[in-house]
Amino acid sequence: MTDATLGEKANALPPPAEVEDVELFHPKSWWTHYVFSQDAKIIAIQYAGTAIAIGLVALVLSWVIRLQLAFPGAFAFIDAEHYYQAVTMHGMIMVVYLLTALFLGGFGNYLIPLMVGARDMVFPFVNMLSYWVYLLATLVLTSSFFVPGGPTGAGWTLYPPQAIMTGTPGHDYGIVLMLVSLILFIVGFTMGGLNYVVTVLQGRTRGMTLMRLPLTVWGIFAAAVMALLAFPGLFVACVMLLLDRTLGTSFFMPSIVEGGEHLKYNGGSPILFQHLFWFFGHPEVYIVALPAFGIVSDLIATHARKNIFGYRMMVWAIVVIGVLSMVVWGHHMYVSGMNPLFGFFFAVTTLAIALPTAIKVYNWVLTLWHADIHFTTPMLFALGFIVTFVNGGITGLYLGNVIVDVPLSATLFVVAHFHMVMGVAPVLVVYGAIYHWFPKITGRMLDETLGKIHFWITFLGAYAIFFPMHYLGLVGVPRRFYEMGQTAFVPQSAATLNIFITVAALVVGAAQAIFFFNLFWSLRRGKPSGSNPWRATTLEWQTPETPPGHGNWHDLPIVYRWAYAYSVPGAPEDFLPQNAPPLKGEHSP
Amino acid sequence: MSVMGLFFILIASTALWWLARQGVLQSPWLEEGEIADFPGAELLPRPPAAKVGLGVFLAVAGCLFSLLCAAFFMRMESPDWVSPPVPGILWFNTAVLIASSLALHLAQRAAGRRETDSLRSWLLVGGGCAVLFLLGQLWAWRELSAAGLYASTNPANAFFYLLTGTHALHLIGGLAALARTARKAWSGGNSAGLASSVELCAIYWHFLLFVWLLLFAMLAGWADNFGVICRRLLS
To answer: Which sequence spans correspond to the domains of chain A?
Structure first.
């Protein structure tokens, strides 16, 4: 067969209109265009902007925590109450309002329609509603800083009975606002999540089979499915706790005496709350991690100019991690007391997650093997992620075992572990992804030099913060404590190390200003990027306009191959976009 | 926990069936062939997006109710649990909800046959019965609180209010969708769109009826044995 006939054959393929085209909402005014927008790309930017703004609040709160730990009592404005409030709000904001919202609401909204070749999400109106409910949830949460008594200081897990007892900071209004805000967040998220899932199922363009989806979409898709199934756990827990607090029911509140007075509560089960909370809480870790896995896979393949090693294994690993993570929540409750058989069950399922996770790490490393690695800023962040994730994951193997977890559970070792694995690692991916997709979103490149300075300070700084923390945990420094006082078993050097960590935390936090400067400076002055600066294969780089216009495409693209056709022998360039017509003799995934 | 287990087996088997049907088990890069044979060149027929959306939503709502039931069975074990008497009106409510579901089923068939008049009347009957059900539930609440059985007096009462309340809120949401469908039915217009709206409402109604039957069985205490069996299985 000759080239000409092949070309004809490609042209003879049925026109793209065979995928039913959607009726889009066309904005008529500035308000419906930029504010009450139904365009997923605008909604994505709104989601990301809100999440990052509230995330900055949480960053400042982490400084408050660190200042107290390094210099106990030196700052008059940090008393025990404020300290607990800072710890609580820092945790809740970072996990739910920043990371979940940013990965799913931000990257999900921007990338899913573009990467699957759709014009928009399938339910744009519901999508818009999702953002506004999220914003409302964030505002309710923020308002708790300004009510009498301040925000709740119950810890981000909000365990009853202490969460609603009078001794806990913010027991009047703070806890109520927190619960209401979470309920709103879940309602808003469910609306968004329906969109992400159904768009991947229904909105894929012609030729975009499941096994040709970029791993980013797979990660976000699996995370959205998990979130839809896991958030109801938090929803039920919040509603029942709210009823306990406001109506005096006894779902979770046991019979309890406070200040010599027997409270009206009777016989509730705090353990029930823990089950419901962690039924959400553990999948939440992977709701944050799976999109990060997906994005990192695409960053590595693109910047190393090589197809991802073991694509199908990667997809199955994502699915298996998603399924397993729904049945491991008990490992957060080893110290709550449980049937030893349950402890055994949860330890086994927890450690089993190491298998698919290790497959992913091996595949990333094997993708890099003999690859044409470009040390661009997104690549640096992706590599930083792999190292950090492995570090955090390995301490997870320690903590997954009941006998190791019980003594370490209340120490800084746990803090170091989860910050590495679900704090630093996903945040590195967020940065990598922003450096990678900023050119598509704005049409301009971010400055590479500033980006590299930002990377090295953040990466090394994060290790300066969290690496010594493992050691502090091993010598027995407890977490959550406002101050240590005279403690015989903790050596004096722990205090010095705490000062070191705090200085590192202040520097890393302040260094994020470089990133924000870069963001705003490049928005106006950055080098024009063209439509495909990274020479990437996925559909979002093949849009007719950059930034993509309303509706994304003129004619819907047809997809002929998977997303990893890099360094293809015989190809005119070293990559083949997913929608480029097939080459002679090509048989491509 | 057993409740959640059952629910997840259901969800997981649906997901696996779907994944297998979509060709995840294939390895397309091992297949050689002509360009026209490129897998995916032919389209799998896709159900309408709204129907898939409803399916996903039902999974989420199902998860919510399963968790509430799981909490119900776990909390039931504590010694202070005193089940409230079942208000007699619940039998009437159940009958009304079955009638409502049946009416929407008939409405769906009428929409399929494009019989606008009978469609409109069945929609009215379905909506009316649903409203009657909600009023009946409110009546049951009043009956309980008149007997001094408040949410704060016993966890069993609290669960009664919580479960019936959550179910009622879902039905109210459904009524909003039904109202929109009715507006379409009265204004005429696109009959295919109308038929699919009616179908979605009917599916949602059947789902809520199913949930209600399970909740009713639990609240009436017929499912207590189930809780005992679960505990035996787990211990």
So the answer is: 34-253+268-542
Bridge partners for A257 per DSSP? A262
Question: Pick from A190, A198, A247: which is nearest to B52 by CB?
Answer: A198
pLDDT range class, residue A223, cuts 50, 70, 90:
very high
Give the chain B residue nearest A207 (alpha carbons). Answer: B40
Contacts B234 to A, Cβ<8 Å: 339
Per the prediction, chain A carries an average pLDDT of: 90
Residues 6+ apart with CB under 8 A from A63: A505, A506, A509
Query: CA triplet A482, A483, A485: central angle to 5 degrees?
Result: 155
pLDDT of B74-97, one tens digit each? 888 888 888 888 888 999 999 999
Contacts of A579 in chain B (CB under 8 A): none
Residue B83: what pLDDT? 86
Task: Write out the DSSP string of A266-299.
Answer: -S--HHHHHHHHHHHHHHHHHHHHHHHHHHHHHH
Cα B183 to Cα A268, A331, A335, B159, B178: the distances in Å are 46, 51, 56, 36, 9
- pTM score, whole prediction: 0.92
Listed by number, the residues of chain B in 144-203 with a beta carbon closer than 8 Å to a beta carbon of chain A are 151-152, 155, 158, 162
Q: Do the chains contact at B71 and A339, CB–CB below 8 Å?
A: no
Which superfamily does CATH assign the domain made up of A34-253+268-542 to?
A: Cytochrome c oxidase-like, subunit I domain (1.20.210.10)
Q: B47-234 belongs to which CATH class?
A: mainly alpha
**Alpha carbon distances (Å) from A394 to A214, A282, A493:** 28, 17, 26
DSSP bridge pairs for A575: A566
A127 to each of A38, A96, A138, A183, B112, how far by Cα in Å?
7, 18, 17, 18, 30
Q: Delimit the domains of chain B by residue range.
A: 47-234
User: Which of A311, A316, A326, A587 is the best substitution to test chain B (most B C-beta atoms within 10 A)?
Assistant: A587
